[in-house]
């Protein structure tokens, strides 16, 4: 009887131990985060004083850090509140200073630390004789180019109503956490239908590619993000007739069929173009590209690689307050 009781107690303890281990494992599962990245302005803690005395210069040190996977080129502009802050460097003194950077490399999977570029300015604060103190802002504006190439194996499901056991593959809606950029592909959906075209019905497979702005900035034209006189952060304006909020895509491919071409009885087209340019607008931080494969003949479902290149400029800003005292 004692032996049986001991066995029962052992079994109960084992069950409790296994349950506790499973609970701990669940608790320790890391949270899946969106994979995003881009250029950040970094001011090391303690490097900028909370308060400064008028007419006494102080150093301003900051870094640009590339937390994404693409290399980036662009301009960072530092702007002080007019009449209260001036920036000095080897080129002179003004309330605005711009620095260009080129091909700042993206983050490598082999390195734990993202690439950085350091800058330093000397700041002179001003205050009139009648004001005891005043809080003013130092603004950092970033305009830079970025890119990504989304690659994903997809089922070109020309027969969605067939049982999955009767075909080589079956389409499934897919979602993604990002590809290491400020703007990323986040979902891929598919729709198959037939449409009368020419002298008969053509079978079409439509891919709906959703992209999302995953950071707090805004997409700008590539030409307004490149270093130079047309840079938005340096010149303060976009080209005439051009707005923020568009992203440009390159030549999307389905297997070896490039958009805008026909190959082996498959025509592949992608929409989102405006005035002949490959641009698609954002609404509520999301945009969609629709690509359609049209088949001349009846084909069975097959697996292929969908490749979506995105090229865009990106604008972001950051404001740092600082208090000026009379003495």
Describe this structure in words.
It is elongated, with a radius of gyration of 28 Å. With 327 residues, it is mainly β. The strands form three sheets. Strands 2, 4, 7, 9, 13, 14, 15, 16, 19 and 21 form a ten-stranded mixed beta sheet that branches. Strands 10-11-12-20-18-17 form a six-stranded antiparallel beta sheet, with no helix packed on it. Strands 1-3-8-5-6 form a five-stranded antiparallel beta sheet, with no helix packed on it. The relative contact order is 0.20. It contains two helices and 21 strands. It has helices at residues 2-27, 232-235; strands spanning 39-42, 51-53, 58-66, 72-80, 85-89, 92-94, 96-104, 116-125, 133-156, 174-175, 183-197, 200-213, 218-220, 246-249, 253-254, 257-258, 261-263, 266-271, 279-281, 286-295, 302-325. The model is unreliable at 1-5 and 7-32 (pLDDT under 50).
Give the helix/strand layout.
Elements: H1 2-27, E1 39-42, E2 51-53, E3 58-66, E4 72-80, E5 85-89, E6 92-94, E7 96-104, E8 116-125, E9 133-156, E10 174-175, E11 183-197, E12 200-213, E13 218-220, H2 232-235, E14 246-249, E15 253-254, E16 257-258, E17 261-263, E18 266-271, E19 279-281, E20 286-295, E21 302-325
Parallel strand pairs: 2-21
Antiparallel strand pairs: 1-3, 3-8, 4-7, 4-9, 5-6, 5-8, 9-21, 10-11, 11-12, 12-20, 13-21, 14-19, 14-21, 15-16, 15-21, 17-18, 18-20
């Amino acid at each position: 009887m004692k032996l049986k009781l001991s066995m029962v107690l052992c079994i109960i303890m084992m069950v409790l131990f296994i349950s506790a281990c499973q609970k701990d494992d669940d608790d320790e599962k890391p949270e899946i985060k969106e994979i995003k990245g881009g250029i950040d302005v970094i001011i090391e803690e303690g490097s900028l004083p909370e308060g400064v005395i008028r007419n006494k210069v102080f150093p301003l040190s900051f870094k640009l850090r590339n937390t994404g996977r693409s290399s980036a080129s662009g301009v960072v502009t530092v702007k002080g509140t007019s009449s209260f802050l001036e920036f000095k460097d080897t080129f002179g003194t003004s309330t605005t200073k711009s620095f260009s950077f080129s091909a700042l490399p993206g983050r490598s999977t082999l390195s734990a630390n993202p690439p950085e570029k350091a800058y330093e300015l000397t700041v002179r604060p001003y205050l009139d004789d009648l004001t005891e103190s005043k809080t003013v802002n130092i603004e950092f504006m970033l305009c830079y180019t970025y890119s990504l190439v989304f690659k994903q194996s997809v089922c070109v499901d020309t027969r969605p109503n067939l049982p999955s056991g009767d075909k080589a593959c079956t389409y499934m809606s897919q979602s993604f956490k990002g590809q290491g950029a400020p703007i990323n592909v986040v979902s891929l959906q598919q729709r198959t239908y037939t449409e009368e075209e020419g002298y008969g019905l053509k079978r079409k497979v439509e891919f709906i590619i959703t992209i999302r702005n995953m950071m707090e900035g805004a997409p700008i034209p590539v030409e307004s993000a490149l270093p130079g006189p047309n840079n938005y952060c340096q010149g303060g304006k976009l080209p005439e007739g051009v707005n923020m909020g568009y992203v440009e895509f390159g030549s999307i491919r389905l297997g070896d069929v490039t958009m805008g071409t026909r190959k082996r009885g498959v025509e592949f087209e992608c929409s989102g173009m405006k005035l002949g340019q490959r641009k698609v607008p954002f609404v509520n931080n999301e945009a969609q590209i629709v690509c359609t494969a049209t088949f001349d003949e009846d084909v069975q479902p097959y697996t292929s690689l969908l490749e979506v290149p995105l090229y865009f400029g990106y604008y972001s800003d950051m404001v740092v307050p600082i208090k000026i005292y009379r003495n």
